[in-house]
Amino acid sequence: MSPAPHNPNISVDCVVFGFDQDELKVLLIEQTRGPKEKVVIQYALPGDLLFKNEGLDDAAERVLYDLASLKGIYLKQFHTFGDIDRLHAAKDQEWLQTFREDPKARVITVAYYSLVKMDEYEPQAASFAGKAEWVNIEEVPSLAFDHDAILSMGLERLREELETKNIGFELLPKKFTLSQLQRLYEIILAKKLDKRNFRKKLKNMSAIKPLSEKQKGVLHKPAQLFTYKDD
Amino acid sequence: MSPAPHNPNISVDCVVFGFDQDELKVLLIEQTRGPKEKVVIQYALPGDLLFKNEGLDDAAERVLYDLASLKGIYLKQFHTFGDIDRLHAAKDQEWLQTFREDPKARVITVAYYSLVKMDEYEPQAASFAGKAEWVNIEEVPSLAFDHDAILSMGLERLREELETKNIGFELLPKKFTLSQLQRLYEIILAKKLDKRNFRKKLKNMSAIKPLSEKQKGVLHKPAQLFTYKDD
Predict the structure, then answer these.
(1) Of A10, A79, A164, which is closest to B9 when you measure between CB atoms?
(2) Among A127, A200, B141, B220, which residue has the fewest nearby CB atoms (within 10 Å)?
(3) Chain A window 50-109: which residues touch B at a Cβ cutoff of 8 Å?
(4) ipTM of the complex
(5) How far apart are CA B183 and CA B177, in angstroms?
(6) Neighbours of A44 (CB within 10 A)
(7) Are B29 and B45 in contact (CB under 8 A)?
């Protein structure tokens, strides 16, 4: 079966965040361009042109499924980017000339952000992209197109929703300690939090509940485990 | 000068809220279709196709400027709608066949919401639309295309931002009483608020400050006036 034809003017791009207990990471794909002996590598957010018969959310889900064979993960549209010159940089045009039928077409991109539990997730090369890999949020190089701005707004949205919508559990294992939860907040918000104030705030957070279990296999005194309530 | 050519696949639509001290209103435009003697009127959100050389925010600003000759009002992108069949209803196709070059083209629309002080604003017919008018949010009829869904999400966003970002002042006159502010919250949130709790919450809201002025020309005891701080 030949692939469904693309809509040349609309794409989706995904800011996929993961947390490995110690670092906040974002999933990037490699774009290679230039001749074999002088290949240049640039990083970009995973994304693709929309198929003509495909909804926006469906396209974002397809991109993530192709990269990870994962379905049903947290995925939310957050902004659409449509600057006229967003694809015009010479380096980006060089890449587009190899991979797109109409490299000069104006493309408007609908950006999604996604949260994944890194221990359940193994990135892989996808039909629309080269190698995919996790990169520490503090070590992200300058990205293709306007992806720096997209990543920056995605991170801003993650910070807002962490405070207003208790979405932290999407990044943690099912069972976690309060220290792990605090560490997640500290890393995403990029600031140290006072332990007592943080725990006081948690008391008002009806979203988490204590389990009748403690940590196993740790050298220090095992800590109480918690989980997020389903609703 | 002939008008700039449109991009046939991208539009903007605007959910414009106004508050007249007593009702939350939304700005709608009239779409007329059918023969003169049997004209059918349908309401829609103001919107238009993007010009080929125009940014998304610029397009939303243009739509509002054309309707209101107003610039610099609160305007924020909140969601992009791209369902495949969003323009397919027979009634909508009939209207599109009169007004669009390619009525069957798939159009993705970027939705904005806007807050305006109604006393500074007089809607008028625009190049892309018929009559424009304010309609009470509780009396909005079924709208064209997927505009019911767009309005509904715009209202949801307004409620969220009222609570998290103190945007209420965009809808109030520069100087207002606490009763007016409470009424605004009650109408937008569609629930009665306890006066004492509301004022306690306001004490924690550093965004408003008392003025050394009281209401004038009222029959009851004049109330203290407040204003929002600039930042």
Answers:
(1) A10
(2) B220
(3) 50, 52-56, 77, 79-84, 106, 108
(4) 0.87
(5) 10
(6) 19
(7) yes
CATH topology of domain B172-228: Arc Repressor Mutant, subunit A (1.10.10)
pLDDT in tens, chain A (231 residues): 445 688 889 999 999 999 988 899 999 999 888 888 888 889 999 999 999 999 999 999 999 888 777 677 889 999 999 999 999 898 899 888 888 888 888 999 999 999 988 777 777 766 666 688 899 999 999 999 999 999 999 999 999 988 888 788 889 888 899 999 999 999 999 999 999 999 888 877 778 888 988 888 888 888 999 988 875
Helix (H, G, I), strand (E, B) or coil at B178: helix
The partner residue sitting opposite B84, judged by closest CB among A55, A83, A108, is A55
Residue A103 has, within 13 A of its CA and on its CB side, a CA count of 13
Residue in B31, B53, B52, B29 with CA at minimum distance from that of residue B40: B31
Strand bridging mode A47-51 / A132-136: unpaired
* Chain A hits for B77, Cβ within 8 Å: 79-80
Contact at 8 Å (CB) between B84 and B106? yes
Distance between CA B127 and CA B27 in Å, rounded? 16
Domain boundaries, chain A: 6-165, 172-228
Which of these, B144, B152, B188, lies nearest to B167 by C-alpha position?
B188
Of A7, A53, A79, the CB nearest to B77: A79
Place of tokens 């509780």: B138
Provide the CB-side half-sphere exposure for B98 (13 A, CA).
Answer: 12
| A10/A108 Cα distance (integer angstroms) | 5
Quick one: fold of B6-165?
Nucleoside Triphosphate Pyrophosphohydrolase (3.90.79)
For residue B114, which of B179, B49, B161 has the smallest C-alpha distance? B161
